[in-house]
UniProtKB/TrEMBL annotation:
Keywords: Transferase. Pfam families: Glycos_transf_2 (PF00535). GO terms for molecular function: transferase activity. It comes from Anoxybacillus kestanbolensis. CDD domains: DPM_DPG-synthase_like (cd04179). PANTHER family: RFBJ PROTEIN, UNDECAPRENYL-PHOSPHATE 4-DEOXY-4-FORMAMIDO-L-ARABINOSE TRANSFERASE-RELATED. Residues 5-167 form the Glycosyltransferase 2-like domain. Gene3D superfamilies: Spore Coat Polysaccharide Biosynthesis Protein SpsA, Chain A. InterPro entries: Glyco_trans_2-like (IPR001173), Glycosyltransferase_2 (IPR050256), Nucleotide-diphossugar_trans (IPR029044). SUPFAM superfamilies: Nucleotide-diphospho-sugar transferases. This is Glycosyl transferase family 2.
Length: 240
């Protein structure tokens, strides 16, 4: 069983090294773990720091294309690397790499095809009130559209079966959070949330600005929901 953990990164030299070093390399005897960094046009030492920390693979965008584009590339590269399960974790050290085994367990057990680390089912340290309210609003929108309750629709820690990675479509480059979940769940992939411990970043700076987020994400949600989507015949990880 091959698990590839990928980190989309843009100018994260201060945090990415610690994230990579904290990633568990020994999960189960039959699981091989690799780490992939998708560098989205960084102008700092992100790539050098990632390699020094132990990244196995680095894929570079020559220019900054956006988080959605970086996640799309990460999913594609995981498939090319032969991953049975792909795991995405932000490079800003807000999410707990130690809980990656918890995140992939529902996929290994055949209970889910797509999992998200849920801050609101777990523990949150330091999130500002306006960010929390924004998360609530966008998560509620996703829940209404999918007619299924979601607790944390903006999580930066997710895992995918190989088939989910093969079928995932991210229709804009700016972000991925809402459109990816809408796309996969509408195609019939089973979603499960896993409680995690979350700590707001202490280094670097988030790219998210509320007005820009609204400008890009709302039209993308509308576009995704207007697209014709065919439900897939889902296979388990063991059926690959």
């Amino acid at each position: 069983m091959k698990v590839v953990i990928f980190l989309p990164a843009h100018n994260e030299e201060e945090a990415i090294g610690e994230v990579i070093r904290r990633i568990p390399r020994q999960m189960q005897p039959n699981i091989e773990v690799s780490v992939l960094v998708v560098d989205d046009g960084s102008t700092d030492r992100t790539v050098d720091v990632a390699k020094q920390a132990g990244a196995d693979f680095v894929y570079r965008h020559e220019r900054n294309r956006g988080l959605g584009a970086a996640v799309r590339t990460g999913l594609q590269q995981c498939v090319e690397l032969g991953a049975d399960i792909g795991v995405m974790i932000d490079a800003d050290n807000e999410y707990p790499p130690e809980q990656i085994p918890d995140l992939i367990m529902p996929i290994l057990r055949g209970e889910a095809d797509y999992t998200m680390g849920s801050r609101f089912l777990g523990t949150i340290h330091g999130m500002k009130w306006h960010r929390r309210i924004g998360n609530y609003i966008f998560t509620f929108i996703q829940s209404l559209l999918l007619k299924t309750w979601i607790y944390d629709g903006q999580s930066g820690m997710r895992a995918f079966s190989r088939q989910a990675m093969e079928e995932a479509e991210i229709i804009h480059d700016y972000n991925y959070a809402q459109v990816l979940t809408l796309n996969l769940v509408r195609k019939g992939f089973r979603l499960k949330e896993v409680p995690i411990v979350y700590q707001v970043r202490t280094t670097g700076q988030s790219f998210i600005k509320f007005t820009a987020y609204l400008k890009h994400v709302i039209p993308a949600i509308v576009k995704e929901m207007c697209r014709s989507t065919k439900r897939k015949q889902i296979r388990s990880v063991q059926q690959r």
